[in-house]
Amino acid sequence: MSLTKTVLNNSSVLKVNTANTRHCLTDVVKTEDWSDFHFTKITESTVSRAMTSRYFKDVYDYAIADVIIVGAGSSGLSAAYVIAKARPDLKVVIIESSLAPGGGCWVSGMLYSAQVVRKPAHLFLDELEVPYEDEGDYVVVKHAALFTSTITSKVLSLPNVKFFNAVTVEDLVTKPCEENDKNSKLTVSGVVINWTLVTMAHDTQSCMDPNVIELSGYNEDGTRDYSKKHGVILSATGHDGPFGAFCAKRIAALEPETTEFKSMKGLDMNKSEDEVVKHAGSHKGGVDSIFFCGMEEAEIYGLSRMGPTFGAMFVSGIKAGEEILKHFAK
Ligand SMILES: Cc1cc2nc3c(=O)[nH]c(=O)nc-3n(C[C@H](O)[C@H](O)[C@H](O)COP(=O)(O)OP(=O)(O)OC[C@H]3O[C@@H](n4cnc5c(N)ncnc54)[C@H](O)[C@@H]3O)c2cc1C
To answer: Sorted alphabetically, which InterPro entries does this protein's record hold (predicted)?
Structure first.
């Protein structure tokens, strides 16, 4: 039977012969009304075991990680891409309190769509093969979601990355760098995590204990193993908010002598993007093994907020990622 469908194309009426349309299921669907179409049989318990065996194997395998990235916004994802791609031997865990990765990067300013990226950050878009309109000094991606979905899929397809979403970092594991030195500076040696829904319910229920992911490079007694490179945390939790700027706030509370939580300053696009890139990397304070990128830096270092231009998010992630790669290369 020959089927015809009328579609409008540039105001002209076009007849399309759908009998000629081929798609991935054409060869398995034998009837016009799909009445012969069935999925392969499965038991409900098979579905359950397929999910849980893999999830809990990941929980087990990633109980110790080389790099823990807190927050899967545009800066954290950019860093994850750079680190995990360059060093397939490093175990990279990304913890994201929301269901969806991407943070504030599903939309642009004021919930608009088009994403402005100032040059030279467009080079990262080229690498990811994200299309854009070139406007000279800046480029425009037609929808922020195009960038976010592309980088998310590239990061998640790297075999050394584990993404735990709907999980929140509730605290940091801290140790003295030198066990027997009471003046030793603190090092962060892991993160304390919980299901986000549990984190949100702490005010209503008591004693819902968390779990921990440890950084590599520590001995069983908790002291640093100096024969190895120790793991690091990259905090990319964004602006202060219900969960945001988490590590910045926690470190300032733990180490008030060396770290001040300064809060972001007023908007200045030109100043802020350069500053955010400049400050990205290892924490400029007394606590070891923690790095920052993205807008969380504006909160901890008191930088200007930048407005809806996203290049500094990608580039600060790339710069922090490069510093972390240097740390592991030494
Ligand atoms: C108050 C405020 C002001 C803003 N001002 C600007 C501005 O001036 N300019 C601008 O471009 N954009 C601004 N934004 C939007 C947005 O923050 C940025 O555009 C951009 O998305 C920041 O990227 P990021 O990677 O640093 O962080 P985000 O995109 O915010 O990503 C951070 C991610 O970390 C996750 N997270 C946070 N805490 C935890 C935790 N404890 N455990 C696990 N995951 C966690 C969050 O769920 C989120 O997905 C603002 C947002 C807010 C709330």
So the answer is: FAD/NAD-bd_sf, Thi4_fam
